[in-house]
Write a structure and sequence with these properties.
Blueprint lengths: L3 H12 L6 E4 L2 E4 L2 H15 L9 E3 L2 E3 L7 E7 L9 H15 L8 E7 L4 H12 L4 E5 L7 H10 L4 E3 L13 E3 L4 H14 L6 E6 L5 H14 L4 E7 L6 H9 L5 E4 L3 H13 L7 E4 L8 H5 L7 E4 L9 H13 L8 H17 L8 H9 L26 E8 L2 E10 L6 H10 L4
Parallel strand pairs: 5-6, 5-7, 7-8, 8-9, 10-11, 10-12, 12-13, 13-14
Antiparallel strand pairs: 1-2, 3-4, 14-15, 15-16
Helix pairs in contact: 1-2, 3-11, 3-12, 4-5, 6-7, 8-9
Amino acid sequence: MRSLWTEISDVVHDLSIGAGRTALLGGVRMRCPRRLVWWAAIALVVSACGTGQDGGTARTACGTGKPATGTPITVGAIVTASGGIDFSSATTAAKAYFDCVNAGGGIGGRPVEYLVEDDGLNPQKASALATKLAGDKDLVALVGGSSFVACGVSGPIWEQNGLFDVLAVGVPRDCFESPRISPVNAGPRVSAVAAAQYAVEVKGARRVAQISNRVPNVGDWTQDGVRAYLRSKGLTSAGDVLHDPGIKDATAVLLEAMRGRPDAIILQDPAPDDAAILKAAQAQGLRDKVTFVCLTPCYDTTFPGQVGSYWEGFVSNSEFTLLDATTPDNKLWRRVMDEYADDKAPRDSFSQGGFLAAKIFVDTLVKTAGTIDRASVSRALSEVKGFRSDLLCAPWYFGRAARHNANHDTRYVEMKGGGWSKIKDCTPTQDPDLAPILREEKQLGLTG
């Protein structure tokens, strides 16, 4: 949470009132001494910090009004937060945004009730959770989920029960091949192909290997995408490694990938496993012998500290805008996380995805007239086309498409000075599997 002192400083900065400077207050131009400005800022911030015992109006980052007290609008999400993989930063950010919206008046005075279920990396549990959520008659949609195993079982359940899923982080293939699920992220396959593009077209790699987990329809599907891209360039894979989730022996995995003498290795795991591989590569002295490129999970504010300065210049793909971008939606995401999430909650790309999924849902519902129920929400979501956000390179959509992979242009960042720096802006991904999606985007006018 932001301190009161930080809030006061921000108000003074935003007012742009310094000692001896001219300010516009109440329509009258005044010259304000700095001392007076600081007292005014304190009064403004204290008055905005809560609603008071009488439930008075409060101003939040997500609206101006009394905290929502009407009948809740219930939405749900399935997340993989245990079982060896933790992808919960998306649902954490979605909840933070919903909390912010609720504090600022909700949707037409109604708060959003957010039901989050952890599948524990277990498809059977994911199926049971999807059935449970779909059976809740108050539930109107799925928003902000991020599961490694749910989409294959949840997609048919959503369809049978008239539900739509604005997914924050699609991981397995099924997340991108459902008429009822539309992820806001690009996904591991697109991100992996983008990483391979960088290795081949920028670094000149000719022998590309891959390391990924063997979760069904994740690692194998992702590596298929890279192999298809390599074939389109007249190249073949130098060796592909699939391992159990949660690497136990990073050195063994790395040495297996090195058997084919690659000049580039694409890291396709959650960030902790990728960091373990890089530490093993450092021990082998491979930095100047092999180009390592990572998928979006590495693009995390804490990752440079995990792997150290040895990996200065290391490149990662990014499915969303830069984490420190000063664009409106990204600034709102950061403010929401500061005000409504724990200080230790990750500020990573998938947190951006959770925030964006929640924002798409809220922005859609505030424009929906009449009764808000499952049928009306599903109809409204199915009509979303050309949704624009500075977090994305191109418009997002749901529409009536048979498949969804709206986010397929990505960026690249490199480790620099203990942080990250953008090195390449929005770049189309050359995955042959995107062809039918691109055709449908044009035929249905999905990008607006």
